[in-house]
Amino acid sequence: MSPGERWLVRLEPRPNPSLRLVIFPPAGAGAAICFPWSRQVPEDVEVWAARLPGRESRIAEPLEQRMDVVVSQLAAATLRLLDRPFVLLGHSLGALLAYLVALNLKRASDVNPALLVVSGREAPNRPDNFTSIAEAPDRDFIAAIQALGGLPDHALEPELLRLWLPALRADFRLCASFAAMQTEPLACPVVAWRGLRDPTTTPEGVREWRAATTSWFQDRTADGDHFFPFDARTGFLETAIADIRTAQRTAAGPGLR
User: Coiled-coil regions in this chain (predicted)?
Assistant: First the structure.
């Protein structure tokens, strides 16, 4: 398996996709959380998902806590997919990763996604109040994560906690390392989502994603908590696909140049 195949996983092969959707999961999660979406998107959309070290098939690899390293690896893996138009979609930490990968591709290759979809995170210029809990004792750390919208009971079983907690802490440290990175606007459209009951975001903070692009921008809300994109009742995926189709009609080639 090549390095790129480790960092991005194809969830459901398509024989001749018209578009590739690359998903960046939230902190602590691997590619598997995105698998249900790969079964729900239209047949011409091929879904790929990021898999960082220390989770799923990469469980034996050391966790990576430097944002510049993670972004450069993910961007290099994404470059392999650019024989089709592509969309980047990220939730929470994944929203920041999706933005930074898009920025890396713009700077290094002068190519942009047809669309960037972000959810569960305020704009990159806003302070992140949750990175400070990365070094908290386990009890406090878990309580803070539960406050984001709760965890399933089975996630608190000792054996699962042993596997899950280190990756989650590493991802929060990734967020902290982002502060040293330079940012600038993208040339692609951006759609930014917020859950109405998400304590980690504010309407103002989500609308500030407008400054992350020189193209068109749309902010959207869903009736849910921090993890609303993974609740089929919110209609997130259906609306995201409609936005993707709008952007796809205006994109030419692998991306916008």
Answer: none
Overall number of domains in the chain: 1
> Is the pTM for the entire model greater than 0.90?
yes
Q: What is the CATH number of the domain that holds 176?
A: 3.40.50.1820
Hunting for tokens 């930074």 — which residue is that?
Answer: 100
Whether 89 is in a domain gets the answer yes
Helix 138-147 / helix 158-177 crossing angle, nearest 10 deg: 80
> In DSSP terms, which residues pair with 222 in a beta bridge?
195
Contact between 99 and 186 (Cβ < 8 Å)? yes
Answer whether residue 257 is part of any domain: no
CA 29, CA 191: separation in Å to the nearest integer? Answer: 22
Catalytic machinery residues: 92
Question: Each residue of 90-135: pLDDT tens digit?
Answer: 999 999 999 999 999 999 999 999 999 999 999 998 877 666 788 8
3-state class (DSSP) for residue 78: helix
Q: Which domain holds residue 202?
A: 3-250
Cα-based distances in Å from 110 to 24, 73, 103, 251? 21, 17, 9, 14
